[in-house]
């Protein structure tokens, strides 16, 4: 694999520090990446889940191979850990082409992109992770590269600057993004195939876990896999990470076989509860319920209450809590749902559990947004 002018690790969205440290975080550190590389499926037949995307992509690739042409540019969107990088590698494998991997934040200047594009081989796949974070000059250069397979390299400065056209061999760009809405329409329209990756159902995650356990030479029964799948937040990356931690517990504390009891005990040690919430998630909910009566409370106030940065609460903890229906964002602040009270085994205060909202002087500034 040729990685000249590229980064080894695609940049992750959001605050990398807190997310990378969480067992249920969707950001992969270097150890995770090494293991994930070994567990990644090598073709579409091995890839589990995303049935509609697989079917559509299979048609695109089969047609391109039948024509003897380069595959259309592909845009994959969805949350981290759902398989966008894996699919890009499968696209390259299915087309019998090499793959080049880089990321949007690594391309800060048009010259960075020109250096990568000019070194591509014919038919090569360029995987551009977090494509929405690419600089604007590089983005504008990419328009022409995708459509006409050429770029204009500017030589010199000021009135004497000259644009030298550089022809590029046909290539396939695979863009990945966690925020498709941030892509400008001119860029999005140049992709011949776009797909959105959905969160996995527990049954699909069980298949992922069984496959990974087989590759890791770990014995696991169906109930043990189901227990891990139920706490994996619909994300294969998290499922594989939890499987490895449960494997460690089973080897040290038991006979190495992963059962439901072993899975539950192991994930209890790592503070991952039955719905996949970890320490940070529960800290946010407990502060919202116990300190503020269920809200509404402003994000900054909530962040101070749990001892975290505002961005950490907003980008790391909140998305999953909202998706699980445990927390809601309102114009007045964050509000706990009835399901949050039930999940933590607490009783909502009478009167709706909206918390104190008005001070002695009638001002409403403590719990506002």
Question: Could you explain the architecture of this structure?
Answer:
With 369 residues, this protein is an alpha/beta fold. It has 3 domains: 16-196, Rossmann fold (3-Layer(aba) Sandwich), CATH 3.40.50; 209-269, Helicase, Ruva Protein, domain 3; 279-343, Winged helix-like DNA-binding domain superfamily/Winged helix DNA-binding domain (Arc Repressor Mutant, subunit A). It is built from 15 helices and 9 strands. The chain has helices spanning 16-21, 30-39, 51-67, 84-95, 110-118, 136-148, 185-188, 202-215, 222-230, 236-253, 260-269, 279-291, 299-306, 310-323, 338-343, and strands at residues 74-77, 99-103, 125-129, 150-155, 162-167, 172-177, 193-196, 327-330, 333-336. The strands form 3 sheets. Strands 2-3-6-1-7 form a 5-stranded parallel sheet, with helices on one face. The chain has a two-stranded antiparallel ribbon with strand order 4-5. A hairpin with a 2-residue loop joins β8 (327-330) and β9. The radius of gyration is 24 Å and the shape is globular. Belongs to the RuvB family.
What's a quick, concise take on this entry?
Residues 8-21 have a biased composition (Low complexity). By secondary structure, the protein is an alpha/beta fold.
């Amino acid at each position: 694999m040729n990685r000249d002018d590229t980064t080894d690790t695609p940049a992750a969205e959001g605050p990398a520090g807190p997310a990378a440290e969480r067992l249920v975080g969707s950001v992969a550190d270097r150890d995770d990446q090494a293991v994930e590389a070994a567990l990644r499926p090598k073709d579409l037949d091995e890839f589990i889940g995303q049935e509609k995307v697989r079917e559509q992509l299979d048609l695109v690739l089969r047609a391109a191979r039948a024509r003897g042409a380069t595959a259309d540019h592909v845009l994959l969107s969805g949350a981290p850990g759902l398989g966008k990088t894996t699919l890009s590698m499968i696209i390259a494998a299915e087309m019998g082409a090499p793959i080049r991997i880089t990321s949007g934040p690594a391309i800060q200047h048009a010259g960075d992109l020109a250096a990568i594009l000019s070194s591509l081989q014919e038919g090569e796949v360029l995987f551009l992770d977090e494509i929405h974070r690419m600089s604007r000059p590089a983005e504008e250069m990419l328009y022409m590269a995708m459509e006409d397979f050429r770029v204009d390299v500017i030589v010199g400065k000021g009135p004497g600057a000259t644009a030298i056209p550089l022809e590029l061999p046909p290539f396939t760009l695979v863009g990945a993004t966690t925020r498709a809405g941030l892509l400008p329409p001119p860029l999005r329209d140049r992709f011949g195939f776009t797909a959105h990756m959905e969160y996995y159902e527990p049954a699909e995650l069980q298949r992922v876990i069984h496959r990974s356990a087989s590759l890791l030479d770990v014995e696991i029964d169906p109930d043990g896999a189901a227990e891990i799948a139920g706490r994996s937040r619909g994300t294969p990356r998290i499922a594989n990470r939890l499987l490895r931690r449960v494997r460690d517990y089973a080897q040290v504390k038991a006979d190495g076989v992963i059962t439901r009891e072993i899975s539950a005990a192991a994930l209890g040690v790592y503070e991952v509860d039955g719905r996949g919430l970890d320490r940070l998630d529960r800290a946010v909910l407990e502060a919202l319920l116990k300190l503020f009566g269920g809200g509404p409370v402003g994000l900054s106030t909530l962040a101070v209450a749990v001892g975290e940065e505002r961005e950490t609460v907003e980008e790391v903890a909140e998305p999953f809590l909202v998706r699980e229906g445990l927390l809601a964002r309102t114009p007045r602040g964050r509000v706990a749902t009835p399901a949050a009270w039930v999940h933590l085994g607490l009783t909502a205060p009478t009167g709706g559990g909206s918390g104190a909202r008005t001070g002695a002087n009638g001002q409403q500034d403590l719990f506002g947004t």
